[in-house]
From TrEMBL:
Keyword Nucleotidyltransferase applies: no
UniProt family annotation: Belongs to the V-ATPase 116 kDa subunit family.
Domain of life of the native organism: Eukaryota
Name the UniProt record assigns to this protein: V-type proton ATPase subunit a
GO process annotations (BP): vacuolar acidification
């Protein structure tokens, strides 16, 4: 069927043997033409038949996500689709994924331990080097000072001078104090606080020496690069030692053992360096093994991922099916298009043969009063326009689809506001990039804005083509007019008229064949002329589109056999709209054709305020207002067109409001004959509840609610006829704004820069002009015109006929499986 009405749907029932159920659902998923109903809605996910299988699939999906994270950390990406067909069995795949996960977890754990040990040894080596340098310098200084005679009493003592001289140390052995020390690394940003806390906690009874590490080191605990200082803290007593150790732990300082013996220090540095080389070799071999493992996983990842998602979706669907009382078959119900009956039956038969089932699946159509889902067959061109309509609301089953007309009207209304064939060409070139590369781009993951633009590439293509068309009508190329279709019909009377007004122009040849004559651009009367043209054109377009909407309501009513909507909705709405604004559109056309100077504002205002007064010079045609004649007794006025149209508009309001609620009440009373309940129709057991609910819905007829609803609908249409017509004036306003902005950028930027006769200023002006044109006119103005065209379709056009209270057809299809995380 075409796009005007959704595909005919029917409710089908499938009775599938247990042994072929998995394969049947898989084939139906490949077909993607049936939307299953959940027949176990009252059961929780854990109470359903295949909860265990779904849990297994979820666990496999978790493992695959773990592999994906590990590949991302390693800088790898899944390879292209593998052609090998191994591991297609889910049980084999589950076992293999478990083995791979265990191996990868073990490799990661060993690598983490080795890396931590390596980082600790690296820090230890730095501590040995820095602290060793300090101890060696202190010992060298002390030795040099001992060689000097009388150095104890002479000069000021430095920090490196020993606190006790050799004589003082040997005089009284009982008074000697053994100094202990702690070495390690502390983060550089915490070094000052670390020193301050140590001083306060020990009341200054410590000596701290720090040395900065030149390059950041990897912290063994956090695994991040941190700038650190090597510290040596000298203390006296166990109490001070315990305080220092607690402070080190609080500041995240890593402590390492250290010896005062210089020989042992050199030996320890040698041992640590050798150990570092061994660990580096081990870590590199582990990383190589891990990379090979991840690469082998990446080669099969996409196929495994698709297989797991398919299996999980199959079991999700099987959980929506009810089990027969014999426990030997599953019963499924779902919606499918009528044209899909034969493909579904073929898929059922193929599944029966491939599963070696002795009993075939049963396919039958059920009768129901439930409203079917809405399904339109779209292609890559029409899908974007259908999405624009669906964003407002999904069409009710088989009601007229506005997308058929939106394909043309949406880009046309956009172009009326965006009319400039230079800007249209820019949009066209940008869109052709997406269209030419659509195969490549469709397989890539794009950003949000780029993906949205790529999805609407054919909408933008139509917008660009229509913008070129309306730009040719407006005769604007970046606001510059061109004589493309011939020479201007006007010429200067003398040389002085070029810079004055159109009064100095005379018509020397036939009218310009297509669009606005270029002579209007740049003249003083350009703005009044284009304002009048675009304002009247906006009204004509608006009235035409609203009439189309009302006409579509007639086709809807005729399709659904609703005579009430034809007689008491379509006809009065059509009369009301055209009695006022259809008449205004007719006056505009007559004024254009006759060249009359009639004031249409005056005509429309006094049509209501004083319908019997003479129009005078504002009369556009004979019989527009009155015809009068006399006889012997009286003067009789026969008021013609305007008065008749005004009376029709007044009559149309109660025509819309009153008859329909009373006729609906009368039909309800005839249908039920005064009964409180209607007997249930004979249906299948699975549809008894739905039929009961449907008939019960017919019993609840509240006349007051129907009347209030009709009253609201009538008021909305009457007021909307005025406001919606005025809303179409946005076409005039945005078109004028776009034209004026384009003119300002051209005259005040490009021409101004050209007038300086300076290459640098010209280049700067050209850059500013290009940036302003792209940023303001091609991006912001495009978005603005798009949103206004969207509003005109959603509010002014679709509210005349489109209910949009349906629900979309979402078939069970493997092609629709997304990449979202479980």
């Amino acid at each position: 069927m075409d796009l005007f009405r959704s595909e005919p749907m029917h409710l089908v029932q499938l009775i599938i043997p247990i042994e072929s159920s998995h394969l049947t659902v898989a084939y139906l998923g490949d077909l993607g033409l049936i939307q299953f109903k959940d027949l176990n809605a009252e059961k929780s996910p854990f109470q359903r038949t295949y909860a265990t299988q779904i849990k297994r699939c979820g666990e496999m999906a978790r493992k695959l996500r773990f592999f994906r994270e590990q590949m991302s950390k390693a800088g790898l990406s899944p390879s292209a689709w593998s052609l090998t067909q191994a591991d297609d069995d889910v049980d084999t795949l589950e076992a293999k994924l478990g083995e791979l996960e265990a191996e990868l977890v073990e490799i990661n754990a060993n690598s983490e331990k080795l890396q931590r040990a390596y980082n600790e040894l690296l820090e230890y080596k730095i501590v040995l080097q820095k602290a060793g340098e300090y101890f060696q310098a202190a010992q060298s200084s002390a030795t040099a000072q001992q060689r000097e005679s009388g150095s104890v009493q002479s000069g000021e003592e430095s920090l490196e001078t020993p606190l006790l001289t050799e004589q003082e140390m040997t005089t009284d052995q009982s008074k000697q104090v053994k100094l202990g020390f702690v070495t390690g690394l502390v983060p550089k940003e915490k070094a000052m606080a670390f020193e301050r806390i140590l001083f306060r906690a020990t009341r200054g009874n410590v000596f701290l020496k720090q040395a900065a590490v030149e390059e950041p080191v990897i912290d063994p605990v956090s695994g991040e690069k941190v700038e650190k200082n090597v510290f040596v803290v000298f203390y006296s007593g166990e109490r001070a030692k315990s305080k220092i150790l607690k402070i080190c732990d609080a500041f995240g300082a890593n402590r390492y053992p250290f010896t005062e013996d210089l020989g042992k220090q050199a030996q320890m540095i040698t041992e640590v360096s050798g150990r570092l080389l061994e660990l580096k070799t081990t870590i590199d071999s582990g990383l190589l093994h891990r990379g090979n493992l991840l690469q082998s996983i990446g080669e099969q990842y996409d196929r495994w991922n698709v297989l797991v998602r398919r299996e999980k979706s199959i079991y999700h669907t099987l959980n929506m099916l009810s089990i027969d009382v014999t426990k030997k078959c599953l019963v499924a119900e779902g919606w499918s298009p009528v044209f899909a009956t034969k493909p579904i039956q073929d898929a059922l038969q193929r599944a029966t043969c491939d599963s070696n089932s002795q009993v075939g699946a049963i396919f039958q159509v059920l009768r129901t009063k439930e409203s079917p889902p809405t399904y339109f067959q779209t292609n890559k061109f029409t899908s974007a326009f259908q999405e624009i309509v669906d964003a407002y609301g999904v069409a009710k089953y088989q009601e007229a689809n506005p997308a058929v007309y939106t394909v043309v009207t949406f880009p046309f209304l956009f172009a009326v506001m965006f009319g400039d064939w230079g800007h249209g060409i820019c949009l066209l070139l940008a869109t052709l990039v997406f269209i030419i590369r659509e195969k490549k781009l469709s397989s890539q993951k794009l950003g949000d804005i780029t993906e949205m633009t790529f999805g609407g590439r054919y909408v933008i293509l139509m917008m660009a083509l229509f913008s070129i068309y309306t730009g040719l009508i407006y005769n604007e190329f970046f606001s510059v007019p061109f004589e493309l279709f011939g020479r201007s019909a006007y010429a200067c009377r003398d040389l002085s008229c070029r810079d004055s007004t159109t009064i100095g122009l005379i018509k020397v040849r036939d009218a310009y064949p297509f669009g606005v004559d270029p002579a209007w651009h740049g003249s003083r009367s350009e703005l009044p002329f284009l304002n009048s043209l675009k304002m009247k054109m906006s009204i004509l377009i608006g009235v035409a589109q609203m009439n189309l909407g009302i006409l579509l309501s007639f086709f809807n009513a005729k399709f659904f056999r609703s005579n009430l909507n034809i007689w008491f909705q379509f006809i009065p709405q059509f009369i009301f709209l055209n009695s006022l604004f259809g008449y205004l559109s007719l006056l505009i056309i007559i004024k254009w054709c006759t060249g009359s100077k009639a004031d249409l504002y005056h005509v429309m205002i006094y049509m209501f305020l004083s319908p019997t007064d003479d129009l005078g010079e504002n009369q556009l045609f004979v019989g527009q207002k009155t015809t009068q004649f006399t006889d012997s007794t009286r003067l009789m006025r026969v008021f013609l067109y305007q008065l008749v149209l005004l009376l029709l508009a007044l009559v149309a309001v109660p025509w819309m409001l009153l008859p329909k609620p009373f006729l609906l009440k009368s039909q309800h009373e005839k249908r039920h004959g005064g009964q409180s309940y209607t007997p249930l129709q004979e249906t299948d057991d699975s549809l008894q509840l739905e039929a009961n609910h449907d008939s019960h819905g017919h019993e609840e007829f509240e006349f007051s609610e129907i009347f209030v609803h009709q009253l609201i609908h009538t008021i909305e249409f009457v007021l909307g006829a005025v406001s919606n017509t005025a809303s179409y004036l946005r076409l005039w306003a945005l078109s004028l704004a776009h034209s004026e902005l384009s003119s300002v950028f051209y005259e005040k930027v490009l021409l101004l820069a050209w007038g300086f006769n300076n290459v640098f200023i010209l280049i700067v002006g050209l850059i500013v002009f290009i940036c302003a044109t792209i940023g303001v006119l091609l991006v912001m103005e495009t978005l603005s015109a798009f949103l206004h065209a969207l509003r005109l379709h959603w509010v002014e056009f679709q509210n005349k006929f489109y209910e949009g209270d349906g629900y979309k057809f979402y078939p069970f299809s493997f092609a629709l499986l997304g990449d979202e995380e479980e």
